[in-house]
Amino acid sequence: GENVEQHPSTLSVQEGDSAVIKCTYSDSASNYFPWYKQELGKGPQLIIDIRSNVGEKKDQRIAVTLNKTAKHFSLHITETQPEDSAVYFCAASRGASGGSYIPTFGRGTSLIVHP
Amino acid sequence: SQTIHQWPATLVQPVGSPLSLECTVEGTSNPNLYWYRQAAGRGLQLLFYSVGIGQISSEVPQNLSASRPQDRQFILSSKKLLLSDSGFYLCAWNGAGVFNEQFFGPGTRLTVL
To answer: Least CA distance to A97: which residue of chain B?
Structure first.
């Protein structure tokens, strides 16, 4: 099955700095890579995703890059703000039988942005 | 628009007691439904998923079970809770298809004493 490794487990930055979170995956058939943000006591929320036919995607201060050859993808947050503090999860998936979509999640990165 | 509900929000139960957590989705039909558990280490562990009424796939053997009695209702149950069942339980849904994002519910915090 798929295995997703996520690093670092904790990331502490100063407000205004950039933050980068990296993930690797093992299944070359994976073709969809979402990133979720989870605030304390809440369910994860999708913040950006990328498909295997694209190398980079950007949405304001957030960007994701994908290297299919190396099987790794990264989340980049620029000009970090205290409200970016949360746990971030990467995931990788491919279509499963019956049309279900079963992602494999990384273990999460706790991002702390100091004012 | 679609919404997903979970209840209760928090639950404290003694060891050996039964469990029933409920998840419902509004605004969509025939969703894929998922139960996850999140322990203190933050990782999301997939417990069950369902692609239709009465269709349940189990990812991890344990003393929990799931049922889908209606199209947009997903229930997580246990006959006898263990201390190790404590955690944050998340329900999620997505539409059929390969590239559909999952939408998560607000979660249920379960503490087994």
So the answer is: B51
